[in-house]
Request: fold
Amino acid sequence: MKQIKYLLLFLLIISFQSFAQKNNYVILISFDGFRWDYANRGITPNIEKMRDEGVSASSFQPCFPSKTFPNHQSIITGMYIDHHGIIANDFVDPFTGEHYRLSDKKVTSQSKWYRGEPFWETAKRNGIKTASFYWPGSNLDLEYRRPDYVKKYNQNFPYYARVDTVIKWLGLPYSKRPHFITLYYSLTDTYGHRYGPDSKEENFAIAHVDSVLGYLFSKIYETGMQDSVNIILVSDHGMTNISPDRTINIEKILTGTKYFLQESGPFVLISPLSGEKEKIYNRLKENENHYKVYTKENIPAYYHYSENPFIPEIIVIAEKGWSLGTSKQIENFKLHPDKGNHGYDNHLLDMHGIFFAWGHSFKKGYRTGTILNIDVYPLLCKLFGIIPNSKIDGKLERIQYILK
Ligand code: AMP
Ligand code: ZN
Ligand code: ZN
Reply:
């Protein structure tokens, strides 16, 4: 008799769980380079709806370096950059000499670079279907490491049509329907670089991506799914003003030394040729002005940027608004100056992005402080009641209070 009671209780719990899964959809949206304060300019009525009816954070802290591919990986895996392995937008594997480049679709689809477990992989292991209308690092070459539905990246694909596809996915027969979907838009990043974070052009981009969010809301209400969909809106980093008057020529400082240099602008990574490390570090240290130089051993722990074997021996981080580079890079910058950039110290408020969460699982009108981007992955696992990959840096207890 007792056994039957337990069995009934067990079946009841299982059916509650599957009922919860059935009516539980999460759309994770990223607006690239959408700085924390863009949502306070009075030009984003749809984000304001999320703030009024859901959870809003004062800012969303990226990991160092505050760049696109590394941070989209941190959001989707819950790992610091030195743990998931996408240490920059462009970098070299020092053991094989192979290049990872965000502009090379073939390379960005090679699974071997990605050492973290993206949420869609965790979900797949748990029988949950997933889809992505773009996310850096989503279109991988191994079937089990990518979402069930995935799109090849095309920056110019129309913005509203991406939403139409998401709505179509949500209307698929139940057995085929994804429960977790990502969406991504680059415009605020592109315009932020080109015209600067305080320009009227950037305000146009902000208002435009907000209108796409409004379109998504209207479609969700039209389908009647508003009580089963959770929407999380984030960005990968912020943006700050830069100027050709604030440049530092690394090549000049390092005259007469031998090294391999990667990246430019907010930070550079230097691999000294053998025997040159001390000389190069000392030279950079003696000239330290509007930048900080670190070795992998002495970089402050708060950067979480020392453990990956691909990270070169010397890391140089510019002061906010300053740009580092070789003579050629600086010359190019002066010829075609961008107005904004990111990649600096991730604790600078200008590098922070946004976090908004709306839907049946979230508190209403709840405003909180800064949220760390590595905490989104454990939050996603909690929303679906699945066990996170054990190797993450994110912590559910730092974010769980935003749930009802
Ligand atoms: P960043 O240099 O960090 O500003 O990178 C932003 C750029 O990444 C934007 O211009 C996007 O078009 C590009 N991007 C975003 N997602 C992808 C993707 N999945 N594949 C290739 N490029 C991407
Ligand atoms: Zn970005
Ligand atoms: Zn950018």
Notes: The longest strand covers residues 25-31. The CA atoms of residues 94 and 309 lie 8 Å apart. Residues 32, 67-68, 89, 102, 108, 134, 136, 153, 155, 186, 189-190 surround adenosine monophosphate (ligand 1) (CB under 6 Å). The domain at 247-337 is CATH 3.30.1360.180 (Gyrase A; domain 2).
